[in-house]
Protein backbone atom coordinates (compact mmCIF):
# COMPACT_ATOMS: atom_id res chain seq x y z
CA UNK A 1 0.00 0.00 0.00
CA UNK A 2 3.04 2.28 -0.01
CA UNK A 3 2.69 4.95 -2.71
CA UNK A 4 6.10 4.58 -4.31
CA UNK A 5 6.61 0.84 -4.61
CA UNK A 6 3.00 -0.28 -4.78
CA UNK A 7 2.40 -3.52 -6.63
CA UNK A 8 5.53 -3.12 -8.73
CA UNK A 9 7.99 -3.28 -5.88
CA UNK A 10 5.95 -5.96 -4.17
CA UNK A 11 6.17 -8.27 -7.17
CA UNK A 12 9.91 -7.70 -7.51
CA UNK A 13 10.40 -8.47 -3.82
CA UNK A 14 8.11 -11.52 -4.08
CA UNK A 15 10.02 -12.96 -7.02
CA UNK A 16 13.31 -12.31 -5.25
CA UNK A 17 12.13 -14.04 -2.06
CA UNK A 18 10.54 -16.90 -4.05
CA UNK A 19 6.96 -16.25 -2.97
CA UNK A 20 4.63 -18.20 -5.28
CA UNK A 21 3.27 -16.05 -8.09
CA UNK A 22 -0.47 -16.40 -7.41
CA UNK A 23 -0.10 -15.52 -3.72
CA UNK A 24 2.22 -12.64 -4.51
CA UNK A 25 -0.04 -11.24 -7.22
CA UNK A 26 -3.18 -11.39 -5.07
CA UNK A 27 -1.50 -9.78 -2.06
CA UNK A 28 0.13 -7.07 -4.18
CA UNK A 29 -3.09 -6.34 -6.07
CA UNK A 30 -5.16 -6.12 -2.89
CA UNK A 31 -2.53 -4.00 -1.16
CA UNK A 32 -2.44 -1.66 -4.13
CA UNK A 33 -6.19 -1.30 -4.62
CA UNK A 34 -7.18 -1.05 -0.94
CA UNK A 35 -6.30 2.65 -0.49
CA UNK A 36 -7.83 3.74 -3.82
CA UNK A 37 -11.47 4.18 -2.66
CA UNK A 38 -10.31 6.13 0.39
CA UNK A 39 -8.10 8.37 -1.74
CA UNK A 40 -10.95 8.97 -4.19
CA UNK A 41 -13.41 9.71 -1.38
CA UNK A 42 -11.32 11.87 0.93
CA UNK A 43 -8.38 13.39 -0.96
CA UNK A 44 -10.26 16.47 -2.18
CA UNK A 45 -11.25 17.40 1.38
CA UNK A 46 -7.75 16.72 2.65
CA UNK A 47 -6.19 18.88 -0.07
CA UNK A 48 -8.62 21.72 0.65
CA UNK A 49 -7.77 21.50 4.34
CA UNK A 50 -4.00 21.45 3.71
CA UNK A 51 -4.19 24.42 1.32
CA UNK A 52 -5.17 26.62 4.25
CA UNK A 53 -1.75 26.33 5.89
CA UNK A 54 1.40 27.97 4.62
CA UNK A 55 3.52 24.95 5.56
CA UNK A 56 1.44 22.46 3.53
CA UNK A 57 0.06 24.66 0.75
CA UNK A 58 3.26 24.18 -1.26
CA UNK A 59 2.98 20.40 -1.03
CA UNK A 60 -0.59 20.56 -2.30
CA UNK A 61 0.50 22.81 -5.17
CA UNK A 62 3.24 20.32 -6.14
CA UNK A 63 0.80 17.41 -6.07
CA UNK A 64 -1.67 19.30 -8.23
CA UNK A 65 1.11 20.33 -10.64
CA UNK A 66 2.12 16.67 -10.95
CA UNK A 67 -1.45 15.74 -11.81
CA UNK A 68 -1.72 18.59 -14.32
CA UNK A 69 1.20 17.14 -16.31
CA UNK A 70 -1.20 14.49 -17.57
CA UNK A 71 -4.02 17.00 -18.18
CA UNK A 72 -4.14 16.88 -21.99
CA UNK A 73 -4.15 13.10 -22.14
CA UNK A 74 -6.63 12.72 -19.31
CA UNK A 75 -9.05 15.27 -20.74
CA UNK A 76 -8.78 13.78 -24.21
CA UNK A 77 -8.99 10.11 -23.26
CA UNK A 78 -10.32 10.41 -19.68
CA UNK A 79 -10.85 6.80 -18.53
CA UNK A 80 -8.49 5.24 -21.07
CA UNK A 81 -5.87 7.86 -20.15
CA UNK A 82 -6.40 7.12 -16.46
CA UNK A 83 -6.01 3.39 -17.16
CA UNK A 84 -2.74 3.95 -19.06
CA UNK A 85 -1.40 6.27 -16.36
CA UNK A 86 -1.95 3.56 -13.75
CA UNK A 87 -0.93 0.58 -15.90
CA UNK A 88 2.42 1.82 -17.21
CA UNK A 89 5.02 0.70 -14.66
CA UNK A 90 7.19 3.82 -14.63
CA UNK A 91 8.17 6.13 -11.78
CA UNK A 92 5.43 8.63 -11.03
CA UNK A 93 2.64 6.43 -12.31
CA UNK A 94 0.36 4.01 -10.46
CA UNK A 95 -2.82 3.83 -8.45
CA UNK A 96 -1.96 6.67 -6.08
CA UNK A 97 -1.11 9.01 -8.95
CA UNK A 98 -4.15 7.86 -10.91
CA UNK A 99 -6.37 8.52 -7.91
CA UNK A 100 -4.82 11.97 -7.47
CA UNK A 101 -5.47 12.75 -11.14
CA UNK A 102 -9.06 11.52 -10.87
CA UNK A 103 -9.64 13.79 -7.89
CA UNK A 104 -7.96 16.83 -9.48
CA UNK A 105 -10.02 16.42 -12.67
CA UNK A 106 -13.25 15.61 -10.82
CA UNK A 107 -13.76 12.21 -12.44
CA UNK A 108 -16.65 10.48 -10.68
CA UNK A 109 -15.60 7.69 -8.33
CA UNK A 110 -17.88 5.15 -10.01
CA UNK A 111 -16.09 5.87 -13.31
CA UNK A 112 -12.55 6.31 -11.99
CA UNK A 113 -12.36 3.24 -9.75
CA UNK A 114 -12.86 0.59 -12.47
CA UNK A 115 -10.32 2.32 -14.70
CA UNK A 116 -7.77 2.45 -11.88
CA UNK A 117 -8.47 -1.18 -10.91
CA UNK A 118 -7.93 -2.32 -14.50
CA UNK A 119 -4.76 -0.23 -14.61
CA UNK A 120 -3.49 -2.01 -11.49
CA UNK A 121 -4.20 -5.35 -13.17
CA UNK A 122 -2.37 -4.17 -16.29
CA UNK A 123 0.65 -3.02 -14.28
CA UNK A 124 0.56 -6.31 -12.41
CA UNK A 125 0.53 -8.30 -15.64
CA UNK A 126 3.48 -6.33 -17.02
CA UNK A 127 5.47 -6.65 -13.80
CA UNK A 128 4.59 -10.34 -13.47
CA UNK A 129 5.95 -10.99 -16.94
CA UNK A 130 9.12 -9.12 -16.13
CA UNK A 131 9.75 -10.43 -12.64
CA UNK A 132 8.52 -14.02 -12.89
CA UNK A 133 9.14 -14.91 -16.54
CA UNK A 134 11.58 -12.67 -18.39
CA UNK A 135 14.40 -11.74 -16.03
CA UNK A 136 14.46 -14.20 -13.13
CA UNK A 137 17.69 -15.77 -14.33
CA UNK A 138 19.33 -12.39 -14.91
CA UNK A 139 18.85 -10.94 -11.42
CA UNK A 140 17.66 -13.69 -9.12
CA UNK A 141 19.14 -17.08 -8.52
CA UNK A 142 16.13 -19.40 -8.38
CA UNK A 143 18.23 -22.53 -8.81
CA UNK A 144 18.57 -23.25 -5.08
- State the end-to-end distance: 30 Å
How much strand? Answer: under 5%
Percent range of helical residues: over 70%
What structural class do the secondary elements suggest?
A: mainly alpha
Overall morphology = globular
What is the domain total for the residues? 1
Could you name the ranges where pLDDT drops below 50 across 5 or more consecutive residues? none
Largest sheet: none
Order of helices and strands: HHHHHHHHH
Q: How many beta strands in the DSSP annotation?
A: 0
Mean pLDDT: 85
Rg, please? 17 Å
How many H/I helical runs? Answer: 9
Structure, explained:
The chain is an all-alpha fold. The chain has one domain (6-139). It has 9 helices and no strands. It has helices spanning 6-16, 21-33, 35-50, 54-68, 71-77, 79-87, 95-104, 109-134, 136-139. α1 packs antiparallel against α2, α1 runs parallel beside α8 and α2 (21-33) runs antiparallel to α8 (109-134). The radius of gyration is 17 Å and the shape is globular. The relative contact order is 0.17. The model has no long low-confidence stretch (mean pLDDT 85).
Amino acid sequence: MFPVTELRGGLIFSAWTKIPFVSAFLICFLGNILPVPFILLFLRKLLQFLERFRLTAGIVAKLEAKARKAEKKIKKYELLGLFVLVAVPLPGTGAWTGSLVAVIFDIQIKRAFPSIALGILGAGAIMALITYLIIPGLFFNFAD
